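Treating backbone geometry as a discrete language has practical consequences that deserve illustration. The amino acid sequence and the backbone structure tokens for this protein are reproduced below.
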Amino acid sequence: MYPEWLEKADHLPGVIQGALGSFLFWLLLQLVQFIGLQFLRAAGKTTETLGRRRKFREYIYRRYTSMSGLVNYTQGYLFSLSRALRGLLAGLIFCSIALLLGGGSHVIWGICFGAAIFYFGSALTWLVPSSDWKSASAREHWKRVVDLEKELFGEVAPETHMYIDKLTPEERGEDKTHSGGSERPPGDKGEAT
């Protein structure tokens, strides 16, 4: 009933059986730690990739589609729309596979429709920007574009500097201060009475 090597181990002295059991437990522990570490590394890479994709979507939205009057306004919408259509087509392909191969198998239906929902969701993220991307003032908006360009591409595009330079002093958050003296009320000539 038991494997031969297990029956032989049963006839060993208790000290050796204990050492063998400890070794097997240690080996199992090392294996579980290794598998757990690999899983955490894969999860970390996935999280990093998803974060980078979210930042890229925010960059496309902020740089190209959110502020009216930008030169590349149409290009940003076309890029976002092409990404959304890519997700929609992938989802529809999975729905078609489910219909063609699913038959009576609930497993195939579940896998294909689960994948389709994932792709439909990814398409939707390209069409609907996050609400916190919309509420920024022009100064905060372009500061975030600069931060995203530095993080994603390593440098700030010259066009971004050009857009920042075109902002009015009020949009940049600069105060209009008078250079020289205090302001006097009208009619005051500064004479002491």
